[in-house]
């Protein structure tokens, strides 16, 4: 213990205790419930990608510190992927940075780009690391709440516009959006881009679910809009796209000055990570379009299976246009407190879910919403659906 009565955890982090995922995963283990809480797949990604990692390891590629910006093979593959999908040209040497997952990319970007007191606008509900990283960087978060409207959570562009002040430094965007499954439309992205240009804001955009868009939704990177290429830090990750979340290979693509800034923070966080896996992800990014199409089709079928099951069980379902999460409203079940509902659900129905309120500053705005992950084997989802029927 320290000699003073001062709390050990500093004031910046005091509000961030253990994450809800730790609590809910422990509850899943204790009760034997099916864990649809945390968003990781329960099967590994493509065999040839796994084999590529084994080969790299055996051949002694990446077993020692890889280059700070990432191995050249991977940086080249990331640039080629952005070009092939979106027509975005990036110099692999100056405009691409490999990170320890998207998580480190987010942290490094915020630590590099914010001065204490700078305001950061982000959509609420937020991905859980955003608030903590803004706090660690000394920034002030300014939430813009996505609200339910016609079966989806939508951004109010007027509210976004009104949130910008003279202290706003950065917009932290996430599309496709976790946890709501919202995919921003071209019109919304155009308005965001115009606002960023007009108010001279930096943009950090988390696009880790870029390959998981369904129906007629379309993922369009913000960096493709006029005036955005030079002010946008785009973040991607292999974890979600290739179902290797444990490998922690993520990346940043941006203009050289932005990459240099982010790298300045990144070099003192992990310095480097995931050596052999970087070579494997380079091969994964070059997989033919058929891989990405099959991955999307598989996840779409899982979405439809779980969405139908949740609707049958009595939830209001917000059918996601992207990601591998479904947000539901529990009020049709006669419930209103997502925390209490999720704490009781494992005993009641043998399933674990996450209360969306943890992703809000305005907890009351998120109170009745609960998130389920569908990146699980079909048999597991079928069993979960059958268990949830008992709620109806
Ligand atoms: C999973 C996730 C991340 C973290 O990605 P890693 O590459 O595993 O660090 C970042 N942002 C969002 C929105 C996510 O869902």
UniProtKB/TrEMBL annotation:
Which GO molecular function annotations are given, in alphabetical order? Answer: succinyldiaminopimelate transaminase activity
**Residue ranges occupied by any Aminotransferase class I/classII large domain in the UniProt entry:** 33-388
Q: Which cofactor does it need?
A: pyridoxal 5'-phosphate
CDD domains, sorted: AAT_like
For this protein, what is the EC number? 2.6.1.17
UniProt keyword annotations, A-Z: Aminotransferase, Pyridoxal phosphate, Transferase
**Which of the seven top EC classes does this enzyme belong to?**
transferase
The keyword Transferase is assigned to this record: yes
Q: What superkingdom does the record give?
A: Bacteria
InterPro entries, alphabetically? Answer: Aminotransferase_I/II_large, Kynurenine-oxoglutarate_AT, PyrdxlP-dep_Trfase, PyrdxlP-dep_Trfase_major, PyrdxlP-dep_Trfase_small
The record's annotation in PANTHER family points to: FI04487P
The protein's name: N-succinyldiaminopimelate aminotransferase
Species lineage, top-down? Bacteria, Bacillati, Actinomycetota, Actinomycetes, Kitasatosporales
